Amino acid sequence: MGVSYYVVATSLIGLVGDYLFDDRKQQDRASTNQLAEELAPLYLSAQTQALQERLEAAAAELGARLMVLDMSGKVQADSKSELNGSRMELPEVASILSQGKTEDYGVHQTESKNAALDVLGLFRPYDQGVEWVAYSTAGLTQNGQTIGVVLLTSPMQGTMERLFTLQDKMILYFLIAAGVAMVIALVFSRVITRPIVSLTRSIQRMGRGDLSVRVPVKGSGELRRLSETFNTMSEKLEMLDKSRNQFVSNASHELKTPLATMKILLESIIYQPDMDAGMRTEFLTDINKEIDRLNLIIGDLLTLVSMDSKTMRLNRTTFSLAQVVTDTAHRLALVMEKRHQELKLQLNDRCDMYADCAKLSQVVYNLMENASKYTQEGGVIRVRLIRSGRDAILSVSDNGPGIPKEDQSHIFDRFYRVDKARSRETGGTGLGLSIVHQMVLMHGGTVTVDSEEGNGATFTVELPIHQG
Predict the structure, then answer these.
(1) I need a surface site. Which of 30, 56, 70, 178 has the fewest CB within 10 A?
(2) What tens digit of pLDDT does each residue of 246-255 get?
């Protein structure tokens, strides 16, 4: 801004200066040329008195000093009668006498020992001893031959004072404008960079592990969107970190529980060598169950890790989802008979689909097993499969205790249990529904839960049917 203002100010000064000089230059040249025509006959005929009188009259009329010089540059007539016989060594005179010009013009500063240069490098016209004058010359001619020179000397003090005053003011305005622009730039840069500095510090804190950091959202435009995006990212990272920590804690706890149980049972066997054979067999059977439970937990964890790392791929084949439901029902029939549970299947369509049969079999098994675990003895489990457009809809319902509203949003979280004590009794790991959720998502489907406490729960899976 300061540079542009300086350029504009310099250009303006130049334009004003050109206008002032051009106007004065045209006037002086016109007057000098007219006088040259009038004075040539008087100079040629040596009418000294008439020449002097005409010079004095014209000088008074123009407010200037007039001289007539011969071919050697000597003053032959002076309106002030002071420099007669003196030689005028001026470039404007020399250009007429030796260079063949018919007229010339120049502005000069008179020499003075008191002329002082100010801090800006400008000669101020109001300093003592400084005077500006303009020299306008025209040739005295006869029959096209130069016989002398008319020299008009006019004061330029007023013009130069106005020009220099304008220049000083423009420089002052430039300094003020530059100062104001600098202050404004500093203020605005501080306003603009403050959010960026805050964001940078927050990123540094995040890099040191503080994921709870947030930046204030102020202003509008790109900086506001940047702050909002950062806060969203920070919130997601914090939630992910908490989820990871919770997952590690839960996994450690789930693995530790069967190990602790096995340790107690083994110590009992070791430190009671005379233990009854039946009790020993019972303890070993319990240890075997805990080993199976560890294998189940580790298998589920490996499955989830594989899905999280995106290394698990779908092995698609064409199969009937209705047949998968029927096969799963046969696998769970013995368990449900022991609990005196009734399984009702309603299969309205074969739902032939192109998908990963093994993974969807696990989805169906987990949902039906989960329904059996949380349904009391003598309860009813309903499985319904229909086709809706290009989707297969599988619903698994039970008449168990249901799921409280506050727990339904977490039902697909890893290791989450509505009734932790009961889940361990039934051998659950808290990973089954999470695996169902992930595998359904891998197939481009959705899984939802609808439940009221005391009225059972219904899990609904919608899967796109892709023909192979």
Answers:
(1) 30
(2) 667 666 766 7
